[in-house]
Records
---
Amino acid sequence: MTKNLQNRLLYQLNFLKSIGYEYGQSINLQNSNNEQLELPNEINQLEELVKNCYLCQLSKYRENVLFGSGNINSKIMFLKESPTVSEDEFSTFYVGKSGDLLKTMIEKVLKVNVNDVYITNIVKCISPNNSIKHEHVNFCKSYLDKQIEIIKPKLIVILGESVYRYFTNETRAFSEIRGKVIRNNDLDIICTYEPSFLLRNPSSKGEAYEDLLKIKAIMEQM
């Protein structure tokens, strides 16, 4: 069995197990892929499926799966790359220095409680040495797509250049699109710096503040 077929089989078995099946119908692995498999339309069921996912190597390193947090009826979604060490340890967002900064950005500038917005990651498990690979992103893609389908955000705030690259597959310079609302696959997105970048480069906080003011203005018109 090839690695690709093995991954497809694991994906299907994880899904069947999460919805209560002990045995499933025959799986045509040659004609199936992650996107073709039907995922739950209820957010809690989807989260339970993701928490039992072992499709890629990152499942070996996690203590917890960081699926998502906040108001599922929110019109705005924040999208990070992957869980931090602190988030993985405490199984929650907005912890550690970068988490504290992000919470401050949302609550002090956007003037909304973090529980009133929705946040999730491109990749749901922590990675060793922040070594996210395209294969990890691809395994989580169907989960993220389903989250977006269920929540239906009117605006997705992309946190960081790497998330922008993974989410859009675009090659335009980050400086060219940062702070601008752009259309991608029928979704409105706006990019700004990730908190960890701002901690390393405090001189960029002014630009991030301007981005947040634009986001705040958009939110007020939703």
---
Amino acid sequence: MNQVTISEEDRRLLGLWAADCAERVLPLFEARAPDDTRPREAIEVLRVFTHTGKRTAQLRAASWAGHKAAGEVDDPAAAAAARAACYAAAAPYIHTLATPHQAKHIHGPAIYAALARELSAGRDTAVGDEELQWAIGHASPEVRGLLRLMPACEPGRSRLAVLRHHLDSALRD
């Protein structure tokens, strides 16, 4: 495995993009679980990180709470939206080992946001593709550069794998 350099500024910029991706689909979760604030809190704590640059136990806990919320909601689109928030809040904890697993952490907020939109539209893949295009268009050069440090994503068969591969390829261009 290759060791890569990831600056705090890289983490901050990744966090901004991740928060923006996940925040777009939070209403899908909140419509199904209006009393569950965990995914929104994950994004809010992430936004604090993007301003202060300090990774805290609260940020890690918020990410895990978003993950738990995804497992407790009874709607696939809402669960995917909560996973987008979970991955977003975990973005600042990306490791310096260039592994496919770390690349998945970069992809997570955008691909789960796209999946959430798609599922909420009756599995309309065009809606998911449109959401992914938004994420690609809003990725900063720094986010793209960070992804290029990681191994390229291999194509897969599941819809999530297809979204991941498309995002990975587009962000490397």
---
Amino acid sequence: MRQAEFDGRGSRIRWTEAAGDGPARVYVHGLGSASTVYNAHIAARPELAGRRTLFVDLPGHGISDRPADFGYTLEDHAAALAVALDDARVTGAEVVAHSMGGAVAIVLADRRPDLVSRLVLVEANLDPYPPVTAGSSGIASYEEDDYVENGGHARVLEKVGPSWAATMRLADPRALHRTAIGLMQGTSPTMRQLLVGLTAERVYLQGELSGELPGAEGLEAAGVRVVTVPGAGHNIMFDNPDAFAAAVAGPAA
């Protein structure tokens, strides 16, 4: 396990790492998740093994610290992720990022292009204020104290089901709520606008069962390769690991 201080007050972002060659491949989880749980089975596949690989848990999640005075905006998470990569002496990484983590990765690539050579975005949030059916909106529908202290967190855990709850219960409730609020607020320019303006290689994975990706034509016109993954919903790495690994490996693999 590796760690680096990210807030000037002693709080640490943590990650696990597998040694290997070539540009580092960095996995970033979604809201209420953890990177190893969602991606270790992918990184171990033969077509992906042998690369230096980092599994980073964002602040408030998994094995990272969860300071009560941290903002947990997308920009805050991206800054903490940059601290981790700087400490690990990573540049030009391939960043594989899911859902909320994809939004963080887009901000990272915009703010620190030296850290990112390729983005693989897995149903990443591109626009503020997602539909009310999204997990982030369900959390953000509560006031912070109601979510943290008056049973909101427990009700959300029951609603999301056992699989997501298994990692969500490892996250700090206050951090979850603030992260969900930050995700709903998005960035200015929006994450979609930032993605269009990036020069790094960009791949966007959309699960077939999730429906068509809004604005896909505009993304493709800007050089983003949009891939619809058959038989998959939001958690593509679980629903179709073969296609997921192939997309991460890239056409040359």
---
Amino acid sequence: MSGTGEGVGYDGLKVDRTGQAEAFDAIGDRYDEAFPHKEGQVQSAEWLAARLPSGARVLDLGCGTGLPTARQLADAGCEVVGVDLSDAMVELARRNVPGALFHRADIADLRSGGPVDLGRFDGVAAFFSLLMLPRAEIPLALETIHNLLRPGGHLVVSMVEADLDDFAIPFLGTTIRVTGYLRDTLREVVETAGFRIEEESSYTYAPESSDVPPEEQIFLRCKRLD
């Protein structure tokens, strides 16, 4: 599966991204206009950068337009690789952060033995990318992240607190499918995947766009357990 609709992967799990990339292709740079203030994301990326060696390789998983995370990590001296399912987002990211490398790919492509091999990383940022997956796939995505990280590597991840599984919602004039967890369940899923949660924060976020309701955002700052 290469981020183009439906496929089979993850030990036979059917992977369905129908409409997800197309939605973000249509949104383009309106995403940054609708979500202009990202304090939780910025602070978590700062936490990650502070724990990485000089010149560390960092994966921005679901990089979007590259703002603010890929640029922030590149400015901190990291070697940044970004991945997104949307062609439009990847093109915007390349323009916004010319010093980083960006690929159009799906998280499923990065699994062990998958079609895309980007090497190993000292850190991974996954801000609101896992919420685009159904619950059945999120533990597999976290396993993929664990395998991509070098021993002792760090992960920063964010989700919206909600009891939803692959639920269709209106989003900036289009429709996407999203998944969420209640806080304790999210912690359990992340820890079960082999991570120690070192810090946690949450923010009530009200986007600028009127069709996106306020949300409770959870940020987990984690270390890979060897």
